[in-house]
Design goal:
single chain, mainly beta, Immunoglobulin-like, 9-stranded antiparallel β-sheet, 4-stranded antiparallel β-sheet, 11% helix, 43% strand
Length: 233
């Protein structure tokens, strides 16, 4: 015989199930872009090219989904997902990151990048990086998802062959990353007061290759070196 759960117990089960599904998935994408010369878009950093490093983010449930607000002051209210809120992170080099220079960085359109973060001189790591959105009353947040949210341009000091590797590190601990919820709270003018909810996350690694010449030319050169040479008469 199956017994119906009491309403309070059912609410707790639903909240626990919703909480277990709340997560950010971060990933790195690297593109070769024109630096001091043109780029061929093959994903490998060759003479004249810079590395453009993108931090992509996905959050589930997505925009329009339901979430239980139980962090950052929440008391279990159910709300609707509106947008990514804020991310505080560091890009930590694990291999040869200091063999280049950071040229520029920027957040995705519609997001702000805090001036607090920057390059750590002794390591070339990017530390204290904060991006997010803080809409004024009456303005809806940007619903961007499954896309890049931060990018930085890195230029090799020279093009000796090497792998450059790095990892994501969440800097703030329990306070970020967060999403923005509409839990039904309104200000005296009837405008939405968005609430932030902190979710779980992963810490991905990324890497790219720097070479002194196009791999295609390296392969052809290696092949030519194996051919028998014609003797001079």
């Amino acid at each position: 015989m199956h017994r119906a759960l009491p309403l309070a117990a059912l609410s707790l089960c639903l909240a626990a199930e919703a909480r277990s599904q709340e997560a950010f998935t971060f990933s790195w994408v690297v593109e070769d872009v024109a630096g001091t010369g043109a780029a061929n878009s093959n994903g490998i950093i060759e003479p004249g090219e810079d590395a453009m490093i993108y931090l992509n983010a996905s959050f589930r449930p997505g925009v329009g989904g339901l979430d239980v607000w139980n962090t950052a002051g929440g008391a279990g209210e159910q709300g609707r997902l509106c947008a990514l809120g804020e991310v505080i992170f560091a890009l930590i080099g694990t291999e040869n990151l200091a063999s280049g220079t950071w040229i520029s960085d920027s957040p995705a359109p519609g997001f702000a990048l805090s001036p607090i973060g920057g390059v750590q001189p002794t390591t070339n790591n990017l530390v204290g990086m904060i991006f997010g959105q803080y809409p004024l009353p009456g303005f809806a947040p940007n619903p961007r998802n499954d896309d890049w949210f931060y990018r930085a341009r890195w230029r090799p000091t020279e093009y000796a062959p090497r792998v450059v590797a790095f990892r994501y590190h969440n800097e703030i601990g329990p306070g970020d990353p967060s999403v923005m919820l509409d839990v039904g709270h309104r200000d005296p003018q009837g405008l939405v007061i968005y609430r932030r909810d902190v979710w779980s996350f992963n810490e991905p690694v990324g890497s790219f290759l720097v070479v002194p010449a196009s791999p295609a030319w390296l392969i052809v050169g290696a092949w030519l070196s194996t051919l028998p040479r014609r003797r001079r008469a």
